[in-house]
Structure formats: structure tokens, C-alpha cells
Amino acid sequence: MTQFERMTTAEILHAVKAGSVSIEEAEHWFQRKPIEDLGYAQLDMQRGIRSGFPEVIFCSGKPDDFLLSIYQHMVQENGAAFGTRATPQQYAFIRSVIHAIQYDPVSRILKYEEEEKPRRGLVAVCCAGTADVPVAEEAAQTAEYFGTRVERFFDVGVSGIHRLLAHLEHIQKANCIVAVAGMEGALASVIGGLVKNPVIAVPTSIGYGAAMQGLSALLTMLNSCANGIAVVNIDNGYGAGYLATQINRLAAGEEEAEA
User: Fold this and answer.
1) Are the C-beta atoms of 220 and 184 separated by less than 8 Å?
2) What is d(CA 36, CA 242) in angstroms, rounded to the nearest whole number?
3) Radius of gyration (C-alpha) of the chain in whole angstroms
4) pTM across the whole model
């Protein structure tokens, strides 16, 4: 099933015409129910066809048995499953049944892939401080899972701006830049004034009292005087990685057309 998850309807039909996909395989794919009703969850089985991105699992707060069942259904149908905000305990429980499941304790991503997707284009993920790395990694690994080539630039905050400038030439080559920062959140504005492509600002909940669990960084990023900056919710690395992939796909498609 994984081959179809990355293909549009037109690509599947062309593959049938070319003989690389059988009529039976394509028919089985198109006959899948749009919703898998588990009672406690309504799995959107055709989201990948509609939007180009399969459904992602938000693990936090889900009972273990429910979470396991969701992963089992998605792995069976898609050959892949991607979850965010998972705990080590959830990982241990899922791994007892799905042995090939992978977990990253930094980003808290819990995923299963039968095969790694090819990656194209380029997104730069930058974060201000080491404490921001978990959110930055969530953004980076989300983009990579969806087929984006990612370069990481960590600990390049404005308190030592020469660290950012040392990598500027590489960052400027990216189709999109994700800027992750807590405290006052100035990194996004600085990068926005130095690059020509879109910047996605991610405020984090890192900082002392007046940072107000990320509200200060959020307001700074929303009030940025630099152009071309979009802002996602506090600590929302997943949302940034998703949006960065959408932008990168458009840019990578244009690059391929020009080649």
C-alpha cells in the first residue's frame, strides 16, 4: 500500500496503463473505505489522496489500547504511521506488539515506515537555543517523513548572532526556513530580514517568568517588522514541518520544471 500513499490518482492510473501496477491493486486501493470507524476514532483513510499528506496521530492523552489499535490499522492499510507527542511508556507499549516501531525521545515522535521516502528540495530548520531543540526536531522530522530534505542549524540565537551568520549562505539556499525560538523570539525576525524565501516562526515555551510559557515569543513573532513570516502555535513543531513541506513541494516542483 505504501506505493499508492505517495501517488496521486492520475499517477496511479498512469501506472496501471504502463503496467507497473495491476488493475486489481489499483481497484483495491480505490475501493478502500474513506473512514475506518473504530468507535473511539474515525480514521481518515483517504486524507493522503485529498491533501497529499496521510493522517497523523496525536499520541498525547490517548489510552494505550486505543493508540495501539490506531497504529495497527494505519500500518496495515498504509505501511506507515506517524505520531507526535508520544511518551516513552506509550512507545514501550506499542513496541511490544509492533516491534519495528521507532521512537525519538527528543522530538517525541513515534513512527513506523516500511520504507523511507525519497527526499527532495530543501528546508532549513533553525533554533535559537539548545532548549528549543525538541520543538525544532519535531519540525525537522515531520518534514523529513513527508519527503523533504532538511538541514539543521541549532543554537544560532541572537545572543551570539555570529553563529547564525556563519551559516547564512546555506540557510539562504533553502526553499523555506523554520525559525524556532523561545525567550523573546527574535530569531524569526532576524532571519526574515536576511532571506528571500518564506520563514515559518515557531515560538516555544522556553524562558523565564515574563516569557509566559511562550506567549512573549508568540507576540514578538506576530509583530515582526520583517516580511514573509508566518507564525504557528506555541511549541507546534509539527505544524511548522507540515507547512514547510507544502512550500517546499511547490518550490521543488518549479525547480524540476525548470531543469
Assistant:
1) yes
2) 23
3) 20
4) 0.85
